[in-house]
């Protein structure tokens, strides 16, 4: 393991930022990731995003498969492994009488399976990798079309770019995440983000603001990193010089 005393001030600064943003407390693991990417902070953070997304997708797929296997499949499996016994074939009359119940069960099971898929479905996000600056400009354009041009100033770039600028300029960074599927989103955007009081406060305190919609890939990954559990979501991040960053 590399000794902390052997690290330069810049490397220690990147290590502190990496641990704060990714929530990785294991010093050896954090150092290993940064060394693997040759101290490229943005690439190392992106690697954590991708792993978190893939792991969650795998867990959701396993859960969906487990909940959609019909009980009849288990019964058939048990039948094939049971000892070979002589069974009496049901009469034609009994088969006719039970047919409506079997049909009703099949229809009910199909409806329940479809409902489980709908309930477990995640909000659709843009899977294709796109330029973070383009996404930022599209977010601002969409916001202004809905709520007007009077609002707090949003950073016109990607999340990693915003982090780097906040660190270099010794600024606090305000992260805003919202989802169109949540009822509070419209009121929050219309009444809070456009209020004169907040606009003046952010401007006077020289706070850098990065915002995104979790339907887009980058904001979706940021929500995993910052452990957002409800929306709208707000986080204030301090990345000041070589001191320990705080959120």
From TrEMBL:
Pfam family for this entry, one: FAF1
Gene3D superfamilies (alphabetical): DNA helicase RuvA subunit, C-terminal domain, Glutaredoxin
Transmembrane residue ranges: 96-120
Ranges where the UAS domain occurs: 138-247
Gene Ontology MF annotations: ubiquitin binding
A cellular component term, taken from the record's GO annotations: endoplasmic reticulum
GO biological process: ERAD pathway
Annotated spans, Disordered: 66-85
Keyword field: Membrane, Transmembrane, Transmembrane helix
Protein name: UAS domain-containing protein
